Amino acid sequence: MVANINNYGVINFFENNDKQEPTPQAEPACEDITPVQQEMPVESIIFTKKARNEGKEAFILQALQKSIQGRRDKTRAFVQELQTWQNDGFVDAHYNARVMYDELDKLIPLSFGYEVFKKYYNNTI
Question: Is 91 exposed, middle or buried, given 0-12, 13-18 or 19+ CB atoms closer than 10 A?
Fold first, then answer.
């Protein structure tokens, strides 16, 4: 047993009792609940019926975003990935550059302007 008295008149009392019973772990008062992330369906006119039936809209947008990461020629890489999805029949290839750019700009943030997109989309290099 140790008793310390400091200059402020406070007594600190410490007792070392080796026969202490372990205190039971208190259960949390509330339960951790992880919210379920429900992906909102992507609605756009550029996706074909094939893409909607297979539920690939979000996957296509992720692929388009990944295509520009770490690339110096972001627009060219983006348009090449977009044209790959068009050739596979998941993105409608019948829209002009303006409509395609506007729809894609609504869905994902684009780091390039329309004029550059149009140049690569229409192959007018």
Answer: buried
